[in-house]
Input
Amino acid sequence: MSRLRAIEIDDRDRIPHTPEDFLRWLGGPAILRVPGRDGARTRAVSTLLHGNEPSGLRALHRMLREGFVPAVDLVAFIGSVEAALSPPVFSRRALPDHPDLNRCFAPPFEQAERALAGQVLDQLRGAAPEALVDVHNTTGHTPPYGVGTIVADPQLHLVSLFASAYVHSDLRLGTLVEATEHEFPSVVIECGMAGEAASDALAKAGLERYLGAGDLEPIREAVSGITVVGRPIRVNIRTGARMAFGDAPVPGADITIRSDIDGENFKPMPRGAVVGWLSGGAWPLWAVGVEGQDVSRDLFAARGEILETRRDIIPIMMTTDPEIALSDCLFYVVFPEGG
Ligand SMILES: [Zn+2]
Output
């Protein structure tokens, strides 16, 4: 992983035509500075922390090419450029044998990705932005939504520029948004599935609203229109368990998850809803929230070979990518919050 570059975007004509060539031009992780109409204030964007989540990068690239001038100065961090460029382009979350960059924003900032994260935090803090929007994609089909650690009007307003749902997370994963939560309003925006034109369009429209607004004063109607869910519990496959996606039990798999499971994202699943099938061997799931103990058997149950929900849940971030399911998590369970 190469070191952080700082690039002033003063001449738009130098920006290559395609997002891929733009990344090659950046050459590695980079902080872009784009002058706005009011040079006394700054807003921050980060994107491509995961190399397989290109909507934010595509949006920024197009906005720069189209001559978009932000209302205030923009500082933009483009993260996993090398992972994104390693062929096939936009297929890798991180470089092989490297950690997930968005799990590295907590001290100690020693090894390569953590050192990069530390430098990025220094740069962002130095810029003292009014807010930070960290643009991601999901690996499954989902409506767009925001994620953050604080439920207050500034965060809900930022989310309302992109989506109508907000996940209040109390997990501590080492993300960029966790690291900056008390310094300026910081939210993740999940724009929808990577590679879909609708996700790219949503990222661009939202960033144009965020960066084009004269001020970020929360608008009452927008804030009150956001559905807030919280207390996320990570649902994981136990190490060593063989997992498959399918429409029926897959021979040899300890657990088969419904291959259309991502269609349930953000939809309440009632008690008794089918999640998949079990082989009858050892219990293959574990699920932990902020308390840290395994609650997988409170959430799910075996009925014969069927794996079903044991209580009403809302699943989010459901993936049908086996690699993500095994290396990160299968999905999160959340519950409605507030009134
Ligand atoms: Zn991501």
